[in-house]
Design a protein that fits this description.
Elements (H helix, E strand, L loop, with lengths): L1 H22 L14 H11 L3 H11 L7 H13 L3 H12 L6 H18 L2 H11 L6 H15 L2 H15 L4 H17 L3 H14 L4 H13 L3 H9 L1 H4 L8 H11 L2 H12 L5 H15 L1 H14 L3 H12 L4 H20 L3 E3 L5 E2 L15 E3 L7
Helix pairs in contact: 1-3, 2-3, 4-5, 4-6, 5-6, 6-7, 7-8, 8-9, 9-10, 10-11, 10-12, 11-12, 12-13, 13-15, 17-18, 18-19, 19-20
């Protein structure tokens, strides 16, 4: 009803603007009787017969494009876009741009709206062309650059995304180093998949030069080094994560353990793990620590460590690991009982999410560097709690 009322008022607003213009040139006088347009009555009839699509078409025709109605057209097109009726929005804005009496600013506004229509419709090539032209048109420059970055991200054109993000830095003064580093990492992963490890390494260095706190770049650097048999370089890269963002350290711990053990640096590994034990760690890291304790000091020592940890940090994941340790040490009858608990904890863990976006709330068992929900970079963090980390 609200939308229908709006359309009923649009022609009235157009007529009111025309009357106000005439009154500015002559003395106020009694207005003559206004003949209701047959087109208006036709549109009204469509509304009464519950044919809103045809009514909208009629009311659009009724609104003559002039300096008094341009804003109305822009608002109407924007309304259609927000309602998901992108085809109607495109038609309104295209019709508006075709008018010869628009000022430069009005034409720029109409092009900007049309670009957003194309973007919403998934017509990325058309949207890219319009926003590229609008970069030099204030006040649309900043938003146009952001839309272009969004387009290049969807197209996975990371080179253009880097170039555009740097232009945005110059325009706004706001540093874009975090997401630019991710673009370099995306390019590095592409190079690694194609077998060009030399290029991948160069791109990772660019990512770290752009953003020294890039956990993703450190993880990639370590994995490339490990694949090349350079475990020392891999360890160096992964140890850096503790200073960059401890929240992601659990991603590197299993790989660190593997490299330390291959190098025969078990004592150094134990010292590092003891250091981690004195700090609050993710549950998956604590599980790895318990395995190392089991290897060095036996199952009882590992079970004692987990029991003490569980008292301070209740966790399904740690309970699952503790039950696993105890199943082998009890009688068959007790083992069957513990297995029931193990089955329950396993089901809870297999259905639980590990990461959650701190912006939109999207959750997943897998780490995404760009949130699939809101497209933000590095916003997924480990979930803490009984079933999280």
């Amino acid at each position: 009803m609200l939308l229908e009322s709006l359309f009923l008022l649009l022609p009235v607003a157009a007529v009111s603007g025309w009357v106000a213009g005439r009154r500015g040139k002559q003395e106020i006088e009694l207005a003559p009787k206004t003949t209701i347009s047959p087109i208006y009555l036709k549109g009204l009839n469509y509304l009464l017969n519950e044919q809103p699509d045809k009514a909208i078409d009629v009311f659009i025709q009724l609104l003559e494009v002039d300096t008094e109605t341009i804003e109305t057209h822009l608002a109407l097109g924007s309304l259609f876009r927000r309602r998901g009726e992108v085809d109607r929005a495109i038609r309104i804005h295209q019709n508006l741009i075709a008018r010869p009496n628009l000022t430069k600013e009005q034409r720029s506004d109409a092009l900007f709206e049309l670009g957003q229509d194309y973007l919403r419709a998934g017509l990325l090539d058309r949207a890219e062309s319009l926003f590229s032209d609008l970069i030099s048109h204030n006040p649309h420059t900043e938003i146009a650059l952001n839309h272009l970055i969004d387009i290049y991200q969807q197209e996975r054109d990371w080179e253009k995304a880097i170039e555009t993000a740097r232009r945005l830095e110059v325009k706004t003064g706001n540093k874009q180093f975090a997401r630019i580093a991710h673009y370099y990492c995306e390019l590095a992963e592409q190079a690694e998949r194609s077998g060009d490890k030399v290029r991948a390494q160069k791109l990772i260095k660019k990512a770290l030069t752009t953003n020294r706190a890039s956990v993703r770049a450190s993880l990639l650097e370590g994995k490339l080094a490990m694949q090349s048999g350079n475990d020392k370089a891999a360890i160096k890269a992964w140890l850096r994560i503790e200073q960059q963002d401890k929240a992601y350290l659990a991603e590197a711990i299993p790989l660190l353990v593997e490299c330390y053990q291959r190098l025969g640096r078990n004592e150094e590994l134990s010292e590092y793990l003891e250091q981690l034990m004195s700090d609050k760690q993710a549950d998956s890291t604590i599980v790895i620590l318990s395995k190392q304790i089991q290897k060095e000091n036996g199952e009882n020592a590992a079970a004692t460590y987990l029991t003490e940890t569980l008292k301070a940090k209740p966790s399904v994941q740690l309970l699952d690991r503790l039950v696993e340790l105890n199943i082998k040490q009890v009688s068959d009858t007790e083992s069957d009982k513990l297995q029931v608990i193990k089955d329950v904890t396993w089901k809870l863990l297999s259905n639980s999410h590990i990461y959650q976006c701190n912006i939109c709330g999207f959750s997943s068992r897998q780490l995404y560097w760009q949130c699939p929900g809101c497209r933000s970079w590095e916003s997924l963090k480990p979930i803490h709690g009984l079933e999280g980390e």
